[in-house]
Amino acid sequence: MAGFATKRLGKELSKINSNSLPPGIELVSADNFEEWFLDIRVLDSNPLYLNQIYRLKFRFSAQYPIEPPEVTFVKLADRPIPIHPHIYSNGIICLDLLGQQGWSPVQNVESVCMSLQSMLTGNSRNERPSGDEEFVRANRLRPKDIDFYYDDNNV
Amino acid sequence: MSKSQQLREEGNRHFQKGEYVRAEALYSQALILDPSNPTLYTNRAMSRLRLSLWDSVIADCESCLRLSPDNLKAHYYLSQAHLALHAYTDALAHALKAHKLCVQAQDKSLTNVTAQVLRCKKEKWDYEEKRRKRETSDLEEEVLTLLKKEKDAALDGEDGGGSRGEELTREWEDKLRRVKEVFEKAREKEEKRREVPEWAVDDITFGFMVDPVITKTGKSYERAAILEHLRRSQTDPLTREPLQPHELRPNLDLKQACADFLEENGWAADW
């Protein structure tokens, strides 16, 4: 829908600017209504993620929030890709909430960041998804078009 | 295919390319051959909208409505033309009529029509707000002028000036200052921090609600927004339980509350 995304993102942004985000989540840049960057870190002392900050990239289509945003981790010199059984080493995240089925338009940038934060906090497995190497080498699909097989929803 | 139909399709092609003058002329030719075709009037009205020919848009839409009184597009275009001409009451009436027809026909233009309703309310409020401000500042000017006149008259009565004259001048200066203060305070109050209440905001678009509908979970959304979501996924946005469009119910009290709030706070329309 024309205008849906721009208006809604404008409001999300002004809310973020006036109320600030929850602890451990920071807006890095939101220069347009197509691509935003945020930093997240876990708040407890989970040794897997201790003292690390992770960079998230949000890409919005004109149909946001009817359509989910595309959310991936970005690798930089000081921003690694967090180790997790549902996060591929190229930054692609396998999370129900971000898929075509699990997404709901009442979710927003802040709530997605909080979900990812708690996804890391709750993890104790120091491993990548099975088939990570093959996936990273072969995948040419956009994250939203990948039909993830949720083999382990307890993680 | 009839000659008028051919002309219409040719008009549509030019319209698509943004050649509105050419399109308008072709629709006019088609109308000469087929003057009782309501679609030709709305086609031409749309070209004329793009050309900012507001009065002609109104004439076309009214011709269309005589032939087909519940024509959604005619009401929608009428609203836009009236709004451009600052005829706010008519603009809003036709926007609301278009909205009602949209809901009945489950038409996909509901999002745009909903936005038009808000736009009418906003512009009407802006206009009235401007008038209120102007009237207040005129009144202030008038009161100050009267006071100054009284002061001059009082001073004229005191021949020779002297200490009595100075005292009078001080008294009047004080009165003038206090009147200015009162007006200033009133202005500050008007510009106090404006906040939109959460209950009036749709959780999908974050926009001000015009036509809230309620789901089984008791949560209300803007009708256009939740229908847009249901076209993609027939689930309740909060619980993910199955949800069908026919299960939505209008939330009349909330609708009234939103309308009442907007009446007093037109700025909220494009919050």
UniProtKB/TrEMBL annotation, chain A:
SUPFAM superfamilies according to UniProt: UBC-like
Organism domain of life: Eukaryota
Protein name: Ubiquitin-conjugating enzyme
Alphabetical keyword list: Ubl conjugation pathway
Domain UBC core span(s) in chain numbering: 4-155
PROSITE patterns per the UniProt record, alphabetical: UBC_2
Matches recorded under InterPro entries: Ub_conjugating_enzyme, UBC, UBQ-conjugating_enzyme/RWD
A Pfam family: UQ_con
Automatic annotation (TrEMBL), chain B:
Entry-linked SMART domains: TPR, Ubox
Matching PROSITE patterns: TPR (PS50005), U_BOX (PS51698)
Annotated GO MF terms: peptidyl-prolyl cis-trans isomerase activity; protein-folding chaperone binding; ubiquitin protein ligase activity
Gene3D superfamilies attached to this UniProt entry: Tetratricopeptide repeat domain (1.25.40.10), Zinc/RING finger domain, C3HC4 (zinc finger) (3.30.40.10)
GO annotation, cellular component aspect: cytoplasm
GO biological process: cellular response to misfolded protein; positive regulation of proteolysis; proteasome-mediated ubiquitin-dependent protein catabolic process; protein polyubiquitination; protein quality control for misfolded or incompletely synthesized proteins
TPR repeats: 4-37
InterPro entries: TPR-like_helical_dom_sf, TPR_rpt, Ubox_domain, Znf_RING/FYVE/PHD
Coiled-coil residues: none
Catalytic activity field: S-ubiquitinyl-[E2 ubiquitin-conjugating enzyme]-L-cysteine + [acceptor protein]-L-lysine = [E2 ubiquitin-conjugating enzyme]-L-cysteine + N(6)-ubiquitinyl-[acceptor protein]-L-lysine
Keywords, alphabetical: Isomerase, Repeat, Rotamase, TPR repeat, Transferase, Ubl conjugation pathway
Domain called U-box: residue spans: 195-268
Protein name: CHIP protein
